[in-house]
Amino acid sequence: MIERIRQLLELIRFSHTVFALPFALLAALLAWQTVPFRWQDLLGILLCMVFARSAAMAFNRLIDRDIDAANPRTEKRHLPAQILSVPLVAGFTVVCSVAFVLATLLFLPNRWPVILSVPVLAFLLGYSYAKRFTSWCHYWLSAALMLAPIAAWIAIRGDVTATPLLLAAAVFFWVGGFDIIYACQDAEFDRGRGLHSVPARWGVPSALRIAFLSHVGTIVCLLALWQTSGLGWLFLAGVLLVAALLLYEHWLVRPDDLSRVNVAFFNVNAVISIGLLLVAVADLWLGSGGSGVAP
């Protein structure tokens, strides 16, 4: 049983939860500057993030299992290698989906999370089909992850303001950029299989330029968030550090050398997401933001 759980966590790459969860927590942290903190809201955010991502990732592995089996880079994943069975992964997807919807009940009497839970889940699962019909599939993924800060804000405050939208926009451009970089590894394979991606359509050099522009958008959005949210100089320093890390990420990956894509994909981006959250916590704790978060 323990071994099966470990394999399921490997299947969904549970460690990659660090990409979206810190931004949901950052949005919640900013929302709690204007509304009372409730432990059930924090628990709800954690459970919803874990279950929604697990359902989406398991569903993706199910839908892509034949593609993964044909790709030398992914042929040893759990479903192609028959380490896990299709019924087991399908059941895991259903359980996580139901658990996600049930977890939204923790936000009551705010009913918006419950009302939006099924449409949000459908959008997350829909990403798995995107590369079959659009080269911009990377931005479907980024739109899915950008829902994290918006959803956390709505769950706590029940409204939408500039603060979560700017944070969500930063996530949108950030995830889109690094997913394009990651997809460069499969450019030739995708082209041969009739799958769509930015690298497959425009080539690796152009894809890396598009990813760079996307990451410029990330920094612009984070600077706008700093200006409008009441965060202070410490958060600004964090944004500048994020810019430096993104430059380092693009230095690591070159059109003629994709050997360090995994370092750029996980290590650098994990530092960005977790680091930005910690910097925001420190900023608010030290009171460097002045009067607090703008409504």
UniProtKB/TrEMBL annotation:
Belongs to the UbiA prenyltransferase family. Keywords: Cell inner membrane, Cell membrane, Membrane, Transferase, Transmembrane, Transmembrane helix, Ubiquinone biosynthesis. It is found in: Membrane. The gene is ubiA. One of its GO terms (biological process) is ubiquinone biosynthetic process. It holds the Pfam family UbiA. GO terms for cellular component: plasma membrane. Its cofactor is Mg(2+). It is a multi-pass membrane protein. GO terms for molecular function: 4-hydroxybenzoate polyprenyltransferase activity. Its EC number is 2.5.1.39. It comes from Maioricimonas rarisocia. InterPro entries: Polyprenyltransferase_UbiA-li, Prenyltransferase, UbiA_prenyltransferase, UbiA_sf. Its main location: membrane. The chain crosses the membrane at residues 12-32, 44-63, 84-106, 112-130, 137-156, 162-185, 206-226, 232-252, 264-286. This is 4-hydroxybenzoate polyprenyltransferase.
